Amino acid sequence: MCGIVAYVGQKDAYPILINGLRRLEYRGYDSAGVALLTDQINLYKCRGKVADLEEYIADKNTGGTIGIAHTRWATHGEPNDENAHPHFSRDRDIALIHNGIIENYAVLKKELVSRGYVFQSNTDTEVLVHLIEDIRENENVELDEAVRIALTQVEGTYAIVVISKNHPDSLIAARNGSPLVIGVGEGEYYVASDGAPLVEYTKNVIYLDNEDIAYISLKDDIKIKSINNIERTPYIDQLEMSITQLEKGGFEHFMLKEIYEQPKSIADSMRGRLNVAKEIVSLGGIIEYEEKMLNAPRFTMVACGTSWHACLVGEYIFEELVRIPVEVEYASEFRYRNPIINEKDIVIAISQSGETADTLAAIGLAKENGATVIGICNVVGSSIARATHAGSYTHAGPEIGVASTKAFTAQVTLLLLMALSLAKKKGTISRSRYHEIIIALENIPRQIEEVLSHEKLIKEIADRFSDAKNFLYLGRGYNFPVALEGALKLKEISYIHAEGYPAAEMKHGPIALIDEEMPVVVIATNKGTYDKVVSNIQEVKARKGKIIAIVTKGDETVKSLADYVIEIPETEEMLVPLLATVPLQLLSYHIALNRGCNVDQPRNLAKSVTVE
Ligand code: M6R
Questions:
Q1: Atom of ligand 1 nearest to the CA of 303
Q2: Which residues pair with 5 in a beta bridge?
């Protein structure tokens, strides 16, 4: 949710921090701030975007070779200057940034207020900085010990970085539930919520684990201890990311770039895993667990948002190919009910960011009940990737636009590969069918190029419907999750109300909404329940709804009924979501653009939802 970046070394900290904030802004963008250490701590923060912060700081002293910076997505306290991070201790000796939620902040705050602390903000975070100061003074301990003791009193999630005037060459960083990675340079260290701010300086990184506290000092290197004071040897990983992946590369928005990257990102997801000539589909990350998966009574797929839509496609694919029952659960529901899960169960957790708090908690619950958890994540080294027993990365590359696009198609690709591999081993797929599907899969990147070539037409449709108040998206079978995903894309970036429905359900309620003002997007590709969907289109037409149809190339029937058609190439039915989602992404993009919305950073949203 929030983005954290910190630096200690010999260079000027400010440009590194601001640059880092720009790279992290997709995580939260309602306010931002920076604290720089010289002979005192200079702290600047304001409501708004990183650009607003830069403007605000333009005439200020930005000296210092150590500093912390933050971009916020508000949880406690509205987005304003006071609630922006960093937060100061009472004596202004300590400054702190935080990502997460301190759940017992009210109790802690009451206690601190009774001891004379005056709060400047309404945030939960400010409690922590006063608590650290209080412990340091009253228990007469050094700052590092005060931070550790304070964290033992905190309930909730956090990633924090602390600087102090009295420790001019040190950073203290800690995490529990919110991600934090340390970049190790030559005589310098970086700390960030993810690898994006680090990649242009170093590829050597240390991922902090939950309840780790890192004491980073130019004099003494890095020491990592648990909250219980047990030291562990830091392990240096290599960051798998490049700067070009983090830039717009000539596109107006990250979202558009990421939509256009799909031929490549899907090819990358399949690379080394699909060999059509040898008829091999193999996911190295799960090989050891495939036997167990094949003996499972069922799979439970858990995720949130767009990743949950990928699970729905996965349910249809797995049940068709592997013939093992699948249940799809919102992670946020699964974790709070009492699901029947035991040691024979396989839980598949899907997440682009690998940091979604509800999905992480669902994994925790599944593990407590003895289930084996398989992850499908995009961000390498993320919390979910590390919390699962095994899994596969989607390798779609960094997704910066808040609206998920290429991550979705990569997730569906991974689910297909997984199902194909399992089905072949289980003998639930014939050789010829297997062959047909993998050939079709290999063609998908090229076919997406073809879909992308319809952007001009899609823009014209967007121009026609940009003022609509509501949209309905309909699809059946594999196209039902596509309808849900199309509606979600439109809602989140254009703020138009949209609903996705299984087409046949329309007559059980939503049909009442249809009039000449209502655009209805129907995914009407020529397989499965095509005839039934054509009937649904007739029903919409009879009520004067405006029909935008996604059809298989060459379709004449729907063309004669619909107001607009967008063609996608012919493919296997289970692969249609990989193609049909793309025009819907473009449609939402152009509608949002026409409405003057901030496509990459839609209001109220953040890229990774690390709070419940
Ligand atoms: O990182 P995750 O895949 O776990 O994120 C899940 C959802 O927060 C995410 O898909 C969200 O719905 C997107 N904004 C959709 O575009």
A1: 4
A2: 69, 192
CATH superfamily of 454-602: Glucose-6-phosphate isomerase like protein; domain 1 (3.40.50.10490)
DSSP string, 22-82: HHHGGG--SEEEEEEESSSEEEEEEES-HHHHHHHHTTS----SEEEEEEE--SSS-SSTT
- For the segment 136-154, what is each residue's pLDDT rounded down to a tens digit? 999 999 999 999 999 999 9
pLDDT in tens, 484-536: 999 999 999 999 999 999 988 888 988 888 888 899 999 999 887 888 889 89
Instruction: Indicate the pTM of the whole model.
Output: 0.87
Which residue in the list 109, 406, 424, 607 is annotated as catalytic? 607
> Which residues make Cβ contacts (< 8 Å) with residue 509, sequence separation at least 6?
none
User: pLDDT category, 610, cuts 50, 70, 90?
Assistant: confident
- The torsion angles phi and psi of 90, rounded to 5 degrees, stand at -60, -40
The topology under which CATH files domain 248-445 is Rossmann fold (3.40.50)
CATH class, 3-244 region: alpha beta
Whether residue 607 lies in the annotated active site: yes
Ligand 1 neighbourhood includes 608 CB (under 6 angstroms): yes
| Long-range pairs for 457-462: beta carbons < 8 A, 24 or more residues apart | 457/564, 457/566, 458/566, 458/583, 458/586, 458/587, 458/590, 459/586, 459/590, 461/548, 461/564, 461/566, 461/587, 462/586, 462/587, 462/589, 462/590, 462/591, 462/593, 462/594
pLDDT-based confidence at 229, cuts 50/70/90? very high
Residue ranges, CATH 3.40.50.10490, the chain: 248-445, 454-602
- 488 CA to centre of ligand 1 in angstroms: 10
Ligand 1 touching residue 3 (CB < 6 A):
no
Residues 582-591 pLDDT 10s: 999 999 999 9
